[in-house]
Amino acid sequence: MALHIPAATPATAEACLSPETCGALAWHRRQLAELERQVASDCLTGLWNRAHFDRLLEAELDRSRRYRQPVSLILFDIDHFKGVNDAHGHQAGDTVLRELALTAQSALRAPDMLFRWGGEEFAILAPSTGHRGAHRLAEALRLRVADASFPAVGRLTISAGVAEHLDAESSNAWFRRADAMLYAAKQDGRNSVRTDARGNSDAWAEAQGPAALHLVWQESYECGEPDIDAEHRELFGLANALIDAALTAADRDGEAARAFDRLLEHVAAHFAHEEALLAQHGFAQLDAHRRAHAGLLGRAQALRREWQ
């Protein structure tokens, strides 16, 4: 890309002494940002490229260690992509790659970073996400792709491998684990996700103990109705008791199930009490509030049944 460089080239903001020099400085900054974007992007799909992945990786790992937040890597590629090129031509294959990039981006969360790794292979860095969350993310992406239509070739599927970073391992070792999971997904018949169920999130949680996962009541949560606020605080306490019981290595006497039952009993009574108070005050959205309560309670009861 050839750039025409204006004569005025102020080096710093302090040198911006006139509208002309300010304009030139702004122009240079825009051009620099555009060049940096081009260097970091894959020219076919517009995604970040592998070189940019390498530049970001160490900073992301440093952030993970410093704040004790997990980070996961997802590798995925298109199943039988060679057949797409053979049957429809490389131009159709390129179109598929661009369309897949758009489909994948639509399935990701704001913090997730999507890269074209090379060929038909892609990578996702998922910050603040352990291997369980990354597996769910990869599975959602797999389903999104399977449901999508690619006009040039019809339906496609992907396979994915997931690995959460382990504190002592190198970035190369981390990549090899994710790649091994991708290979396992291919060996298992493709159109699947395989996850290495290890990671910092489990190690950190075990080291810190159950308290690290407790819900913490904040004053800002109060609604001003003393009875409701007291019930909300009790709900937090019962939920924390359930967390503690669920994380106990050996729950031989069924304390977790009893803690779940106590929580459900409290939630049902609290919802009924809250709805009665709202009715007394003529709350306009009471019907919608009741439906929301019923949905939450129904889901909690379903989870309780699945517990057994």
Number of helices: 10
Helix content: 55-70%
Q: Oligomer, anyone?
A: single chain
In the CATH classification, which architecture of the largest domain applies?
Answer: 2-Layer Sandwich
As residue ranges, the low-confidence spans are 1-15
Q: Outline, from the CA principal axes?
A: globular
User: N- to C-terminal separation?
Assistant: 64 Å
Main sheet record: 5 strands, mixed
**CATH homology group of the largest domain:** Reverse transcriptase/Diguanylate cyclase domain
Give the averaged pLDDT, no decimals.
84
Q: CATH fold name of the largest domain, please?
A: Alpha-Beta Plaits
Which strands sit side by side, in order, in the main sheet?
2-3-1-4-5
Order of helices and strands: HHEHHEEHEHEHHHH
What is the count of β-strands? 5
Strand content: 5-15%
Counted up, domains total: 2
Quick one: CATH class of the largest domain?
Answer: Alpha Beta
* Structural class determined from secondary elements: alpha+beta
C-alpha Rg (nearest Å): 26 Å
How is this structure best described in words?
Helix 4 (90-107) packs across helix 5. The chain has a 5-stranded mixed β-sheet with strand order 2-3-1-4-5, sandwiched between helices. The chain is globular. It is built from 10 helices and 5 strands, in the order H-H-E-H-H-E-E-H-E-H-E-H-H-H-H. Helix content is 58%, strand content 10%. With 308 residues, the chain is of the alpha+beta class. The chain starts with 18 loop residues before the first helix and ends with a helix. The protein has 2 domains: 50-205, Reverse transcriptase/Diguanylate cyclase domain (Alpha-Beta Plaits, 2-Layer Sandwich); 209-307, Hemerythrin-like (Four Helix Bundle (Hemerythrin (Met), subunit A)).
